[in-house]
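[Primary structure, fold]
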Amino acid sequence: MASVLILMGSTSDWPTMQAAAHMLKEFGVSWEARVVSAHRTPDLLATTMQEAEANDTRVIIAGAGGAAHLPGMLAAFTCLPVFGVPVSSKQLKGLDSLLSIVQMPKGVAVGTLAIGEAGAANAGLLAAQVIGTTEPAVQEKVKAFRAQQRDTVIAASKLELD
């Protein structure tokens, strides 16, 4: 199993969640993506967390829309860090997902990111930062990414009139 496990409730979440995978790839962090539904495959959810712990997975990134119980249920089955990404829904534009993920009871922690692609990308970045605490090569790539962001903003900060 990979260092980071990206889980989602259905394949329809992949267009959002692949932003996490792209970020992890950029930092050279191994990842694996799977569909595990909190509601339709609860037994698979439990065994997936057992496998993740047994195979040295370091971080779980979980994307879910609507009721969005997946990140919380995963956190209930593991002591690994779980980062929840609210996936935008048609009805409430992801606000329902955000509220479902962020409202965890005391004692079951889920780090909640922004709704949609930005949240998924930041979940990948955050996972790389966690991995970077013990893998200097990953930490250096994160530092280089931050420097590139800084340089891009500085280069764009010099505006002129037409």
